[in-house]
Amino acid sequence: MKRHWPRLVPRTLRGRLSLAALTTATLLMTILTVVFNVVMDRHLQHQADDELRNRAAAVTTTIDTSGSHVRVLETVNDRLLDANVWIFDNGRLLEKPPSAAAAGPLPRAVNQLAVQSQHACATFDARGDRPLRLCSQPLAGRYATAAVVTALDLSPYRSSADTLLLGSLMLDAVMLLSTYVLTRLSVARALRPVHTMTDQATQWSAVHSTERLGAKNHPAELARLGASLDALLDRIRTALRYEQQLTAELSHELRTPLTRIITELDWWRRRARSAEETHATVEVIAEAAQAMCTICDTLLNDARENALNPATAPGTSDVVPVLDRMIQHLGASAHLTKLVESEGPTLEAGVSPALLERILSPLLTNAIRYAESSVKVSARSVLGAVRIDVVDDGPGVPQAFIAELFQPGRRADEADGHDGAGLGLPLARRLARAVGGEVSYDSAHAPGAKFTVSLPAG
User: What is the pLDDT of residues 103-129, one digit of tens each?
Assistant: First the structure.
């Protein structure tokens, strides 16, 4: 059975930063506490050694080493000087504290220090006894050598050291708790703009707002985050707008062949038809269905190529056959005049035939729809480009509407009796610009309307 261990790392950034700060502060405080207490122990030990050294110096003033044997002189403060003091004559004990035992661990430790030839100190810490600090001071004479061993109770010093250790630990606990709380508060305050920016970005992306976070009044890190979020919002907005545009263009382009299919089916179902009429209806439906497939493939391929590699070359096509085929499909040959001007037998454009049809289809459809008597189409090569003019003798575009002519969803007259969504001309211009071309309107042409398509030469 798999055991699930508790998660030690916090999930939030504030928790992780607070934990990192707490860990760092704990390590630092531990090092400082150890160093502080070691230094204080050494300082207290030096104080004890200095006290023992001063006491030994006072005792040596009462010792006479001028003769063959060491003599201890009696003084007024002899009882105070004899407290915790051992005096040796060439290793032989002369005097000891009244309360000290004659044998045992302490006398052995004192005897070991008494035979030292120079000043030495040691700590005696036997179980059940108070800890003592022992120091020996040799005193050499002409014939005799004396040694003074003094003892000092270390209990007060160790009590002071324990108090300092307890105080430093309590101070460490307070400092660590303060560090953790202040770090969480500081990080929360520092991350408050991040939460605000995140909430704003979420709200703006949901409503397609044009507002942005910007880089003003923010630290360098938050300014970079704001710039990244702004760029992300722009990409989301562009993707959503492009998706809506593609959906509208598909519905607009598919409307005409779909209408043909519905019309043919209604006509075919009204009464019995001969085999030839049925075959003609099927041909029309098949042709419209194929046109719908071509439209879908063209627009989807254009969207895919622009997303993956906007500079991808879409292919080449002969302009004249494409114009002939489109004019025949539009069924306006009776009153349509077509003029083709070319330097050679062929006129190639740097776009695929299907894409060329999608660019020219809205222009030809509008020209035939609004023309009074004639529509003229001319194509020619100009300085490495192919220019196609579509001219009709209709009412033209109202002067007040020219500025909105290529904006999606705009129509000059909603009640003109013609079905349309105002997406054909924007689609034609977008597809032309996608391959390095352009679709423009000549506002100076009169009467009627004149549209010009410029495409790169094949």
Answer: 788 888 888 888 887 888 888 887 667
Q: Is 124 within 8 Å of 132 (Cβ atoms)?
A: yes
User: Which residues of 53-178 form beta strands (DSSP E)?
Assistant: 63-64, 71-72, 85-89, 92-95, 120-124, 132-140, 145-153
Q: Rounded to an integer, what distance in angstroms lies between the CA atom of residue 427 and that of residue 245?
A: 9
Torsion of CA 438, 428, 443, 405, to 10 degrees: -130
Q: pTM of this prediction? A: 0.45
Overall size of the chain counted in residues: 458
pLDDT at residue 271 above 90? no
CB half-sphere exposure, 455, CA atoms < 13 A:
34
Torsion over CA: 387, 390, 393, 399 (sign): negative
Q: Residue 23 CA to chain centroid, in angstroms?
A: 24
Tokens standing for 151?
């003892």
Quickly list H helices, 309-423: 319-330, 353-370
Q: Does residue 338 have a pLDDT over 60?
A: no
Cβ atoms of 66 and 141 within 8 Å: the answer is yes
Pairing label, strands 132-140, 120-124: antiparallel
- pLDDT confidence of 259, banded at 50, 70, 90? confident
Report d(CA 74, CA 94) in Å as an integer: 13
Phi, psi of 243 (to 5 degrees): -65, -45
Is residue 1 within 8 A of residue 121, CB to CB? The reply is no
The C-alpha atoms of residue 4 and residue 25 are separated, in whole angstroms, by 30
What average pLDDT score do residues 418-424 get? 58
Average pLDDT of every residue of the chain: 76
E strand intervals along 2-70: 63-64
C-alpha distances (whole Å) from 458 to each of 288, 369, 384, 402, 453 are 29, 30, 9, 31, 15
